[in-house]
Amino acid sequence: MGHVNSVLMALAKCPNPTVFQKTLSVNNFCFGDKEWPYPMGHISFVGKLDGETLKAGAPAGAPGWTRDLMARHSLDFWLTSEDLPDPDNRVTLDPQGGIVLQYTPNHEEAHRRLIAKLKDLMKQQRKCQLHGHECHEGLFARNLFVGQRIPLAGVAHQVGTVRFGNDPRTSALDIHCRAHEVDNLYVVDGSVFVSSGAVNPALTIMANASRVGDHLLERLR
């Protein structure tokens, strides 16, 4: 499993000179809302896009100065939704030993609703100041959004290949992350996850590893 990710860029009338803007996140929709009582995900800023970064998604032949101008006036958002377990999504080996990845995205409706929430929030902005500069009619007056889904090859947080659980028929590890069939084999990385959450997993991996470490100390005593 990997996150369901998208990048959404909003263009402002006034420039955005921020160098590193990935310091704000919104988790208001992690547990749904009145219209959709299910988790939608996490919204944060992306580290500032530039003209070269936009080249990958720009139309062929788009001049560099256009991309640079767009980047100078952009607010760049990263949206993440949970990726749920699917028994048909798996990593296997072919007869020659090559890696075979079989994956179909899920939780798509929740992610679409998360994107719609962000767009709606942006449209509600009528007047603002950005670094002391008036944005005239509104930061998002032109309502121009450019969205792009991140492909699977862009995933950095793959999880769930050796998930834990109570039932050996549906999990490889027990709740202490020990292999059901091997007494001294423990796994404490992201493989143990039963789903891929809507946030980066590093702190959860560290917390779980600490938990398993305490269990091992108690067991060795």
Q: How would you characterize the overall build of this protein?
A:
By secondary structure, the protein is α+β, with helices and mostly antiparallel strands. The protein folds into two domains: 150 residues, no CATH class; 65 residues, no CATH class. Helices cover 22% and strands 18% of the residues. It contains four helices and nine strands, in the order E-E-E-H-H-E-E-E-H-E-E-E-H. It has a five-stranded antiparallel beta sheet. It has a two-stranded antiparallel ribbon with strand order 5-6. The relative contact order is 0.19. About 5% of the residues have low confidence.
Low-confidence stretches: 133-143
Distance between the termini: 36 Å
**DSSP strand content:** 15-25%
Whole-number mean pLDDT = 83
Major beta sheet summary: 5 strands, antiparallel
Strand arrangement, major sheet: 2-3-4-1-9
Radius of gyration: 21 Å
Write down the oligomeric state: single chain
Helical percent range?
10-25%
| Continuous helix count | 4
* Outline: elongated
| Order of helical and strand elements | EEEHHEEEHEEEH
Structural class: alpha+beta
Beta strands, count: 9
Total discrete domains = 2
List the helices and strands and how they pair.
Layout: E1 4-11, E2 25-26, E3 42-45, H1 51-54, H2 64-72, E4 74-81, E5 90-93, E6 99-102, H3 108-123, E7 129-130, E8 133-134, E9 145-149, H4 202-220
Antiparallel strand pairs: 1-4, 1-9, 2-3, 3-4, 5-6, 7-8
